[in-house]
Design a protein that fits this description.
Elements: H1 3-11, H2 62-66, H3 72-78, H4 81-97, H5 115-126, E1 133-137, E2 144-145, H6 158-161, E3 171-176, H7 178-197, H8 201-213, H9 224-251, E4 255-256, E5 259-260, H10 274-288, H11 293-302, H12 314-326, H13 332-349, H14 354-368, H15 374-379, H16 385-390, H17 393-404, H18 409-423, H19 427-436, H20 439-444, H21 446-454, H22 463-474, H23 482-495, H24 499-516, H25 519-533, H26 543-556, H27 560-564, H28 569-574, H29 579-596, H30 603-618, H31 626-642, H32 649-662, H33 667-687, H34 694-710, H35 717-733, H36 737-750, E6 757-760, E7 763-766, H37 768-782, H38 795-806, H39 815-830, H40 845-848, H41 853-879, H42 883-900, H43 906-919, H44 927-942, H45 946-956
Antiparallel strand pairs: 1-3, 2-3, 4-5, 6-7
Helix pairs in contact: 5-9, 7-8, 7-9, 8-9, 8-11, 9-10, 9-11, 11-13, 12-13, 13-14, 13-17, 14-17, 14-18, 17-19, 19-22, 21-22, 22-24, 24-25, 24-26, 26-29, 29-30, 29-31, 30-31, 31-33, 32-33, 32-34, 33-34, 33-35, 34-35, 35-36, 36-38, 37-39, 39-41, 39-42, 41-42, 42-43, 43-45, 44-45
Length: about 950
């Protein structure tokens, strides 16, 4: 009799009533007649023999008669004193600790890291292996037939067949890769669900059993954690199917008070009907009949939540029993993962005692003693000891994480003491402890953990991983004595010769040094990293780690300037030769710079940042997407905006010149540079209060020349237009009239190049709205720009009006006409003796010409041309039957004529009346609006001359 069988016998014995609650049942679960496999006559209850008719239950159980009143399981238990002693010891220990603080209730599973997150990491890490595996079962597709041992008896009951393969259909597949093995598992999962949906409960149960048996096989040990995840997913599915079935069976017969209803979410056993309880017991009876320990344990754990349908306290007793059953598993790897699954399922179905988790962890410590035994070493075959030990990590990490979550320090100390006594040289356990415990606890006992790490078995678990885990813990919590900790760690890092191990530790300890020490210690550490990675270009293997280290330094250093003045920070960055990684690091640096640093003027820091920006700039090519180009441009612009040399304006302009040469491919940067130089010119004018000396006048002209030269390098026509106007306005403010004329002329020459469609917020829109607004703004500037005597009066205004003829306007649009109307407004103001606004130290046309008759004649001629153009547009709109647009434009021109024109001229008065009639011809103007216009004109007429009143009279007639 195997040890696993002995444990199962002990647990199910009637003599151990404290381990499992017993109730009287009508049928013996192991009787050789009918076995109830599924409930409700849904096709699951059939006889294993040739007849399908159920055999009545005999009044006396034949097994009881044959064995003198006791069943064989109890008989074997009576012969096993060790099992009885173990059970008694367990019960006493459990009852004692139930009343202690260590038995406090665990928090809800949601407070612990989700298993779905953990299992994804396991599959990602342990599926990347080249091992070959095999699989044998009756539900496997493909492969070869396998001979199975036949039984002498031809009347074998279905319960005896549960954990056997179907005779004649057993197949085996060998040499499976992890991907192929995963595919087979997925097919088994689909087969289980399909069998269940087809009311083939026995087949579904047998698939679950056969999947559980696969966990006994540890060949391809590197893949075992992934195999565990895949198979336990199937078991979880099976357990949920059973639970849901019991809920459905209970729904129609549950009685709450005097009325029928469905089971509530938190139901009690007293709410469950007897029929559902009986079905639930049948499932547990069937699972109890599985002969092999591992599948019996896993399948029962899978339906552990079904105990909620039975008596209260049943779940707690079952957990105790299953915890004891795991001790019967001989292989330590299988045992550790079985305990992991038991703890996980228990936490998902109930609020359990921490004592259960603690006992499972203590049993794991005992299992670890077997790892170094001769038998285990023989099973390793081609796998080294360190690889084999690492396979235990996922299961052990989960158990410890569950146990240590929100645990008091007293429990953590107890666990640590137990570890030092039972497995003090196990680096794996110590690593899991440091990963699971609170970082504050680890930090408070950092020196003690360093001492434990020194005693660990290096062959079984790499010591550098322990130092790495300790560094991760201390990165979030400060140790009691950082200097002492770092001294011991630095001594260990100096002894490492393996570059990979060194980088793994340096990646987590560099942030520790940056947090707790000065830039001098950081610089020394960086020098050590460079010395380790420079020979034979080893740094090429560790670009991700170098990127992480640089990111941590940036995020943990409050004053980024201290990094750039270090001797080794820039050489450290130079080790990153991969273009994409280096660009990512540079973008991270500039992002931190933009968020943390204010204005800078240190030449060392500036040069370092410029070189970093050049790396980003040089990565831009024809294939670079616009979003990437925009992001890089904005980061470089932050440097342009933050370099500030104070009152040293010449040095500031020199910096802008250098930046233009360094970043020639980025329009956004050039646009920012133009604005910065214009701001510099305005700041110069503010300092001298508008009274420029020869030196300052030359400087502002140099600034304007910089902008004038830079603007043409920008591709966007609209950006160039706006910058030309801005530069002209700045030059005008600083009395640079020649530069004003040059900028406005270039702006006007660009107008015909404006595309008819512009992208606005990701959508293509007509450019006429932009152009109308821009030209109106330009007209407001032209009012105060003095005309050059060499060019004649209004030469810039005439140039603007000529440009309007060369742009392709939409014939149905009134945009050009609106610009003409604004030009009429500007010219009417230009005819005044005093303009409403001026620029300091600049004489506008009102000063140069005043009300000179020749000047007024030129204005009137230009206004006549403009009015003619607007009238032509009105004809075009009328010919196209666009009466609404025609009426609106006629009304606008009428208002302009009434407000700006000289109504003493008969022709102008007649024009006003005709425009009013045209606006109202097709009844496109609202009557209320008409009334408001007339009333407004009457009020103005009472304050104006008689000609104004006469026109109003004509309008009313």
């Amino acid at each position: 009799m195997s040890k696993s069988w002995e444990w199962s016998c002990k647990i199910q014995s009637p003599q151990n009533k404290s381990l499992m609650h017993q109730e009287e049942v009508i049928e013996h679960p192991l009787r050789p007649g009918v076995v109830v496999v599924s409930e409700g006559g849904r096709g699951g209850s059939k006889k294993a023999g040739s007849s399908s008719t159920p055999t009545p239950t005999p009044p006396v159980d034949p097994l009881t008669v044959a064995l003198d009143g006791s069943d064989p399981l109890s008989q074997f238990l009576n012969q096993d004193p060790l099992s009885a002693i173990a059970a008694e010891t367990w019960n006493k220990k459990w009852e004692k600790e139930d009343h202690q603080n260590l038995g406090k209730k665990m928090e809800s599973p949601s407070e612990i890291e989700s298993w779905s997150v953990r299992k994804s990491a396991i599959l990602s890490k342990f599926s990347a292996t080249s091992v070959k595996m095999s699989m044998v079962g009756s539900f496997i597709t493909g492969g070869e037939e396998v001979a199975v041992k036949s039984y002498r008896s031809t009347t074998k009951t279905r319960l005896e067949q549960l954990d056997d393969y179907e005779e004649g259909s057993v197949r085996g597949v060998w040499g499976l890769t992890p991907q192929q093995y995963t595919g087979q598992i997925e097919q088994l999962s689909q087969g289980l669900v399909q069998a269940w949906n087809e009311d083939q409960r026995v087949k579904a149960l047998k698939i679950a059993i056969q999947c559980s048996k696969l966990l006994v096989d540890i060949s391809g040990v590197q893949f075992y954690p992934s195999k565990f995840v895949l198979i336990t997913d199937i078991l979880d599915t099976f357990g949920q199917l059973v639970y849901d079935r019991l809920v459905v069976k209970s729904d129609n017969t549950v009685r709450l008070g005097s009325r029928s209803a469905s089971l509530p979410e938190n139901f009690g056993p007293e709410m469950v009907p007897e029929s559902a309880k009986e079905t639930c017991r049948n499932w547990f009876y069937k699972i109890a009949s599985i002969r092999e320990l591992v599948p019996r344990l896993y399948v029962e754990a899978a339906i552990l939540n079904c105990y909620s349908f039975l008596n209260k306290g049943e779940l707690t007793q079952a957990l105790k029993r299953l915890t004891l059953m795991v001790r019967g598993i001989g292989n330590p790897l299988v045992a550790v993962y079985a305990r992991c699954y038991l703890c996980r399922v228990a936490m998902s179905v109930s609020t359990i005692d921490r004592t259960l988790l603690k006992e499972n962890f203590y049993d794991c410590l005992i299992c670890f003693k077997q790892i170094y035994s001769w038998g285990t070493t023989e099973e390793l075959a081609d796998v080294d000891l360190a690889t084999y030990v690492s396979v235990y990590a996922p299961a052990l990490d989960w158990i410890l994480q569950s146990l240590a979550q929100n645990a008091p320090d007293s429990l953590l100390k107890e666990i640590l003491d137990k570890y030092t006594k039972e497995a003090g040289d196990s680096g794996l356990v110590l690593n899991s402890i440091m990963s699971a415990f609170k970082p504050e606890f680890i930090a408070a006992h950092a020196s003690y953990f360093l001492g434990l790490m020194a005693d660990c078995n290096v062959k079984a678990f790499p010591k550098h991983l322990l130092y790495r885990t300790l560094g991760l813990c201390l990165s979030t919590s400060e140790p009691t004595s950082p200097q002492d900790v770092w001294t011991r760690v630095w001594r260990y890092l100096g002894s490492l010769e393996d570059t990979q191990q060194y980088v793994a530790c340096a990646e987590v300890w560099l942030p520790f040094v940056a947090q707790h020490f000065t830039s001098r210690e950081v610089d020394v550490f960086l020098q050590d990293i460079i010395q380790h990675l420079t020979p034979e270009r080893k740094y090429e293997q560790f670009y991700p780690q170098l990127q992480t280290m640089a990111g941590k330094l940036l995020s943990l250093t409050p004053d980024l300037g201290s990094l750039f003045v270090m001797d080794k920070f820039m050489p450290f960055l130079d080790m990153i030769r991969n273009d994409s990684v280096k660009v990512a690091v540079c973008k991270n640096i500039m992002g931190e710079f933009a968020s943390k640093m204010g204005p800078i003027n240190d030449p060392v820091v500036t040069d370092a940042l410029v070189s970093i920006c050049q790396v980003m700039h040089d990565s831009v090519n024809a294939l670079t997407v616009e979003d990437e180009k925009r992001q890089i441009s904005q980061l470089i612009a932050q440097l342009v905006l933050k370099v500030d040399h104070g009152r040293d304006f010449e040095q500031q302009l020199t910096f802008y010149v250098d930046m233009r040469a360094a970043f020639s491919n980025l329009d956004y940067v050039h646009a920012i540079l133009v604005q910065c130089v214009n701001r510099l010119a305005m700041e110069t004018g503010r300092v001298v209060k508008g009274h420029h000396t020869r030196k300052t006048a030359g400087f502002v002209r140099a600034c304007t020349a910089y902008c004038y030269i830079t603007i043409p390098s920008i591709q966007s026509v609209t950006t160039r237009l706006q910058l030309y106007l801005l530069t002209a306005q700045v030059a005008l403010s600083n009395q640079c009239l020649g530069q004003v004329d040059a900028c406005i002329k270039d702006a006007l020459s660009l107008v015909p190049e404006v595309p008819t469609q512009l992208e606005v917020e990701g959508k293509m829109r007509s450019s006429e709205q932009f152009l109308e607004g821009y030209l109106c703004q330009l007209l407001s500037t032209l009012l105060i720009v003095p005309d050059s005597p060499e060019q004649g009066v209004l030469y810039l205004t005439r140039g603007l009006l000529n440009v309007l003829q060369h742009y392709t306007w939409d014939t149905s649009s009134c945009a050009r006409a609106h610009v003409y109307l604004r030009a009429l407004d500007m010219l009417s103001v230009a005819a005044q003796e005093h303009y409403p606004y001026h620029v300091r130290k600049v004489d506008s046309n009102d000063v140069l010409y005043g009300s000179d008759p020749k000047f007024l004649v030129e204005i009137n001629k230009t206004c006549s041309v403009i009015v003619e153009e607007v009238l032509n547009q009105l004809k075009v709109l009328g010919a196209a039957d666009l009466y609404k647009q025609q009426a609106a434009l006629a009304l606008d021109l009428f208002t302009t004529v009434m407000m700006r024109g000289d109504l003493s001229s008969p022709g102008l008065a007649t024009l006003a009346v005709n425009l009013w009639n045209l606006a109202n011809k097709h009844n496109q103007i609202d009557s209320k609006k008409q009334k408001r216009i007339v009333e407004s004109l009457k009020r103005r007429g009472r304050q104006s001359d008689k000609f104004y009143s006469e026109v109003i009279t004509l309008l009313e007639s």
